[in-house]
Amino acid sequence: MSLKSYISTSGRAIATLGLLILGTGLAGCSMAIPLPAFISQDDVSGSIARFSSPLSDQMALDDWRRALGALAQALDPKGAGETVAWKNPASGLAGTFTPLGEAYLREERLCRAFLSEVGSDEAVRGIGCVDRRGEWAVLDVAPLKRG
Questions:
Q1: Which of 53, 103, 95 is closest to 75 using CA atoms?
Q2: Is 47 exposed, middle or buried, given 0-12, 13-18 or 19+ CB atoms closer than 10 A?
Q3: 83-140 pLDDT per residue, tens
Q4: The model scores a pTM over 0.70
Q5: Beta bridge partners of 95
Q6: Which of 38, 60, 111, 137 is 20 to 30 A away from residue 129, measured at CA?
Q7: Tens of pLDDT along 20-79?
Q8: Contact 74, 98 (CB under 8 A)
Q9: 7: exposed, middle or buried (C-beta count within 10 Å: 0-12, 13-18, 19+)?
Q10: Quick one: which of 71, 73, 49 has its CA closest to 118?
Q11: What does residue 101 show for φ and ψ, rounded to 5 degrees?
């Protein structure tokens, strides 16, 4: 094999190797095109659960956040023990919390029974409990029988 032939063959091999490396690198580049018509808005991944309010199926997460502030104010044992209203201007949903009875200890949490009305057609009884970190939990919720 002559030197000229060897250089020519080596050059082709290096060029081929360079193209192979370049092609492999570019193969990772792509563009995602979302197809919203094929994506259901009801799809929920296995790792993120859809929000569910303990008080009403009507309530979205933003409604619940607003209601939670009213719950804390209404059930505060140092408070006046009066009904506290909440409203979410974005959704138009509103409701109230009315404390029932005095606060008591339950499993190292301060708890108080309450009556909650959501919208114009739902009322429930429940127990709101706050832990030492100030986080509220709603327990033992049951529909209120009217009439």
A1: 103
A2: exposed
A3: 999 999 999 999 999 999 999 999 889 999 999 999 888 899 999 999 999 899 999 9
A4: no
A5: 86, 118
A6: 60
A7: 565 555 555 555 555 455 455 555 555 666 677 888 888 999 999 999 999 999 999 887
A8: yes
A9: exposed
A10: 71
A11: 75, -170
